[in-house]
Amino acid sequence: MKNHPSLNEDSDQKALDKPLFSLTRRQFLKLGTSALLGAGLVTGGYASLFEPNMLEITRVTLHQRRLPKAFDGIKIAHFSDLHIGFHTDVKDVQRIVGAINQEQPDLICFTGDMVDSSAEAMSEAVETLSGLKAPLGVLSIVGNHDFDNIRELITLQEKAGFKLLRNEHILLERKGRGIAVVGLDDLLLGNPNLNRALKGIPERMYTLLLMHEPDYADIAAEYPFDLQLSGHSHGGQIRLPWIGAVITPPGSKKYISGLYKIGNPGMPLYVNRGIGTTRLPLRFLCKPELTILTLRQA
User: Distance (Å, rounded) from C-alpha 185 to C-alpha 211?
Assistant: First the structure.
């Protein structure tokens, strides 16, 4: 007797021969478009809702030849670009103040753009910012977004306990030795004056520069500065794999994020990515940053 395949066996074979699923060109295009839109929504939600609130603490140790022994191990908390008034409110300020104080820094430096436009936006944050504590002080400079009513802004910063430097310096003392911190006016809307700011600093004294725009480092490296701290760039706010920052503002086209060595023998420049955002309330692959720098005597 011949063996014949059963109807079930034949049906199973036909099922195996058929593709698991098939799509028409129109269905394929619709599916692809839906996938792209979904990815865009997910990415957009992450860039607007999550990453702007994901503070990253970057720790950097620098060995510096002219640093006095008395300042060996000094810890500096460097933050920048709060842009209060544009998607940065008191709760955001509370988070950064808490993060800074938890680090117990010796010195706190803010490198400009306290507000996004109106100085009044800082009013609600004055009490919170006054909670910043460091034995060597809380220093700041102005950025290009701070010029809407700069006199009021300076008054509010002073109420919050900041020592704001505009083309001037301050001498910090520790165990009988000193270092200088210079703060310059903004490059884009102000009038930075290095000679005025440096006047009166003892020769060969270790000198730290606070300057909002990082590209100014090419000029600063020709003067007796040991380190420059800047912000302004936001790290680009939006960065893409293999490409980096999509766009950066004037004054940060060359130096955008992190540590650089400028000139010869190489003045260190650190560019902080900032806390807030401007223009667009987005950050992508570019988290807000608090920098903790520890200086060691070389």
Answer: 7
Q: Per residue in 212-226, pLDDT tens?
A: 999 999 999 999 999
Give the end-to-end CA distance of the chain in Å, rounded to a whole number: 97
HSE toward the beta carbon, residue 174, CA cutoff 13 A: 17
Give the list of residues 6+ apart from residue 234 with CB closer than 8 angstroms, or none: 81, 248, 273, 274, 277, 278, 283, 286
Residue 21 exposed, middle or buried by CB count within 10 Å (0-12, 13-18, 19+): exposed
pLDDT in tens, 265-291: 899 999 999 999 998 888 999 999 999
User: CA separation (Å) from 62 to 41, 174, 238, 243, 292?
Assistant: 41, 19, 28, 28, 11
CA distances, 217 to each of 42, 62, 190, 194, 263 (Å): 38, 17, 16, 12, 9
Averaged pLDDT, 148-163? 97
The answer to whether 225 and 269 have CB atoms below 8 angstroms apart is: no
pLDDT value of position 280: 87
Q: What is the pLDDT of residues 169-212, one digit of tens each?
A: 999 999 999 999 999 999 999 999 999 999 999 999 999 999 99
3-state secondary structure of 115: strand
Secondary structure class of 76 (helix, strand, coil): strand
Alpha helix positions (H), 135-188: 150-159
CA distance 218 to 209: 13
What single letter denotes the amino acid at residue 165?
Answer: L
- Note whether 137 and 107 are within 8 A (CB): yes
Q: Which residues contact 218 (CB under 8 A, 6 or more apart)?
A: 254, 262, 263
